[in-house]
Amino acid sequence: MRYLVFILVLLITVCLAVAISFQFGSIPPLGKLLDPHHGFWQNAYSEDEISDSEIRLVNLKESVEVIYDENLIPHIFAQNEEDLFRTQGYVTAQHRLWQMEFQTMAAAGRLSEIVGERALELDRMTRRKGLTYGADLGMKFIQEKDIATFRLLEAYADGVNQYIAQMTDARMPLEYKILNYRPEPWTAYKSILLLKYMTDMLVGDQDLQYTNLRELIGEDLINRLFPEYPDSNDPVIEQDRKWDFVPLEVKVPEDMVYPDASIFLKTMPNPEPGIGSNNWAVSGKKTKIGHPILANDPHLGLNLPSLWFAMQLTTPSQSTKGATLPGALGVISGFNENIAWGVTNATRDVRDWYAIQFKNEKRTEYLYKDEWIASTLRIEEIKIKGQNPFMDSVIYTHHGPVVYDKSFRSGRLDVNFALKWTLHMESNEQKTFLLLNKAIDHSDYEKALSHYTAPAQNFVFASKSGDIAMKVQGKFPLKWKGQGKFLMDGNDPRFEWQGFIPNEQNPSTLNPIRGFVSSANQNSVDPSYPYYVFDNGFEQYRNRRINSRLTELSDITLEDMKALQFDNYYLHASEALPVMLNLLEIKNQDVENPKANKYLDQLKNWNFYTHPNQTEPALFQVWWEHLHKGIWSKWEREGISIVLPNNYETTKLLKNEPLDLLFDDPETPDVEVATDVATKSFEAMVAEIEAWEKENGEYNWASFKGTSIQHLVPDFKSFSAENVYTGGGRGIVNATSERHGASWRFVVEMGEEITAFGIYPGGQSGNPGSKYYDNFLKKWANGEYVDFNLRKPEHKENILFTTTFNK
Hints:
It comes from Rhodonellum psychrophilum GCM71 = DSM 17998. This is Penicillin amidase. Pfam families: Penicil_amidase. Keywords: Calcium, Hydrolase, Metal-binding, Zymogen. The chain is α+β, with helices and mostly antiparallel strands. Among the domains are: 191 residues, Penicillin Amidohydrolase, domain 1 (Orthogonal Bundle); 133 residues, Penicillin amidase (Acylase) alpha subunit, N-terminal domain. An eleven-stranded mixed β-sheet has the order 1-27-2-3-7-8-9-10-17-18-20, covered by helices on one side. Strands 4, 5, 21, 23, 24, 25 and 26 form a seven-stranded antiparallel β-sheet that branches. A three-stranded mixed β-sheet has the order 16-11-19, with no helix packed on it. The longest helix is centred in the first third of the chain and has 27 residues. The radius of gyration is 27 Å and the shape is globular. The two termini are 39 Å apart. The N terminus is likely disordered.
């Protein structure tokens, strides 16, 4: 029956691909696709049905054993690192080859080679932001400065390529067959590029938006509505931390003149909404068994195949388990026999834009320090399926690449700005994870992090010896207060970064008195930290909920930590809704609409949880969206991108200053106050929910939110999961929104016998025809986990199959 369902789904997908083939380039050869011996029929399998007991892998020094558990998680047992990572490359490619290549093709700006001209604009943007340029620098740095890491990268690539060489047409991943192309050789460069891709995914800036808003409302009002340290600040590094170092001097220039802001009308790239993460560690003094517990759940886009691939990597000197990134070496978030670690995004502003004045149309020289200096030309050749290559000319200044110019989105008025970004620097993030995989103690953890540049991350740590720690890690520019918030003048050297914060002075803490460390993308520090720290995206709610629960809890168990990761309490609603209801009652004592009364009663009796069967979260979300828009939409202008005050500051304004002129709508003759906006937005909510009920029926939260987990090719709907029945949402610890959420949850107790559990929304297999493609999904949606304990070779229980790799 499973095969029949798969074949039906596959036929639908093939028909879709053919129907929209003009978007993908040439139609796939249907005879080849339908060939019973080589076509899609051969993908109707699960891995346990085609497993090999023995595989020959050249260049091995000794035999390697791979044991698969009942969830298709491979446990690799090798005698040395090169054999370990060569086998990791082979095994990962067995299950995720298409995903590995597709993601690195996207990172390289090469999707046009697969899907044709429809991807040209995206490929040009990727190249112009400098992802390949940054990867080139990283590759050169590793080859010249760290031959040991390069050797392991080459071993991994060799393993991938040996799998590709042995792969038959019948076993080729389905996506290659539908999109009609073949895999190319893997390289060490692609592994470096993959980590740059993650940097791009996790960073953004609002320089343009702040610049526009300053022109509209002035800097004083910006400072009032966008405080750099809000009064709710509960930072990653605990309050009143004593900084035991002498900071570097940062010279603050006077009388700064910013570029003419009247020209900035369009939008620059922004990070995906909903990307976040939680992690924490509690010390043994707060746990039931007296040993630390660590938890991590990165929030990213929800895709199939999953971003993560679970794996254990073991040699005689290390045994590491957790989540890997297909294409990168080692475990990214996990634990070994001595330590555990996890990551969340630190949301630091490490991307700035500089206005460039070129001497003439040739752009071979630009103005810096009032002198003309030479620019650099980088030619990007973008191959296009079925067409001649596109040659793109990208100008580089000493600040960085000029993203927009007369040849790319020339209709924009903000052309000729250079992007300065830490991604464009020499770095070796791969070494950080290689060292973490075999770290023994806190000192090893610190050494590993010293190699890490970008993206900025909060690295949580716990050890079997009892330590817990947190460090905000990355290469952070030295900036004067306010630098980088607005677009800057590329000619004026006073706008330059003044160096970088020394690694040892990055915010960190070890064994704090409160007995836990945690991060959820909030402010890294309090104002006592001696360096300027800024980002527009600091989180205001998840962090306070987590810290509140960790403070309250004692005798903490793994079950407590699982429950906290899946916590559906809506702190924002608990703070905002009472204010909104009070404003509504002041304005309008009697609500005559029966539906309105029903909705109002539901909201008044809500417990502020967002379980999938509840209706109140939908009511609140719609009301809040209309309320927020009703207050701030007056600043929006056609074609002008701005940043708007966040939910926390908006709630505070509603509560503390309900008569403020900020609530007035200048388009009406009356002077509106908070009660007017609350009433109008409530009426809009009633109308919207009534319409929803007529069209869709029940407005329970799961249906209304509509969480979906899409295939990496969005058009392949049949290989996606729609309307996943789960709770949570943006700003909630269980941050499962429409398209984002906990891409990986894991908890580990560092006792005498380490105990661990993990889960992610998908499955180990990249093959839609496999029962292991999405077998984790229901468990993930329900807040359940699978066993993630370290396995030893002699443990024979719950084995799916075993493969021995011989030289």
